[in-house]
Amino acid sequence: MPLPDPDSNPSDVTMPLAGQVIVLDPGHGGVDGGTDYGDVKEKSIVLNTTLYLKDYLLAAGAEVHLTRDKDYDLAPKDMKGYSKRKAYDIRRRVNFIQDKNADIFISLHLNSMTNEKWKGGQSFIIQVKITRF
Ligand SMILES: [Zn+2]
């Protein structure tokens, strides 16, 4: 879908996602880099992709919320222990999604497999009602 022409009359621009609340969740962040390839970390790629996708969805009329917009996790800065931070982080993400009453939630990740037999993209789609922790 092309982005609207900025010089076009606003009444000519279609907003196919108007009224839709979308939460984008760039996976990982902060101490959790996700998978990596050398110095390239999953958390950075998914954040950049999310920021691009956000602009695209906004241009289509959606209300867009991000669980993070920089390199951090959602645990308190002084919380110790990787597992404890991860558990707190995931609960905060779920609560964030629920608080926004999202119509659509997209969590962006890049998976890595050591078996070269597997190639290409993966999409997991599920329709669920999230319950608060
Ligand atoms: Zn991931």
Alpha-carbon distance between the two ends: 37 Å
Beta-strand segment tally = 5
- Helicity range of the residues? 25-40%
The ordered string of helix (H) and strand (E) elements is EEEHEHE
Quote the average pLDDT.
88
The proportion of residues in beta strands is: 5-15%
Assembly annotation? single chain
CATH superfamily of one domain: Zn-dependent exopeptidases
State the helix count.
Answer: 2
3D architecture notes:
The protein has a domain at 17-108: Zn-dependent exopeptidases (Aminopeptidase). It is 27% helix and 14% strand. It is built from 2 helices and 5 strands. The strands form 2 sheets. A 3-stranded parallel sheet has the order 4-1-5, with helices on one face. It has a two-stranded antiparallel sheet with strand order 2-3. The termini are far apart. Bound molecules: zinc ion. Zinc ion is lined by residues 27-28, 34, 42, 109.
Question: In short, what is this structure?
Answer:
This protein has 133 residues and is an alpha/beta fold. The protein has two helices and five strands; from the N terminus they run E-E-E-H-E-H-E. The strands form two sheets. Strands 4-1-5 form a three-stranded parallel beta sheet, with helices on one face. It has a two-stranded antiparallel sheet with strand order 2-3.
Task: Please name the defining characteristics of this protein.
2 helices; Aminopeptidase; 133 residues; binds zinc ion; alpha/beta; globular; 27% helix; two-stranded antiparallel ribbon; 3-stranded parallel sheet; single chain
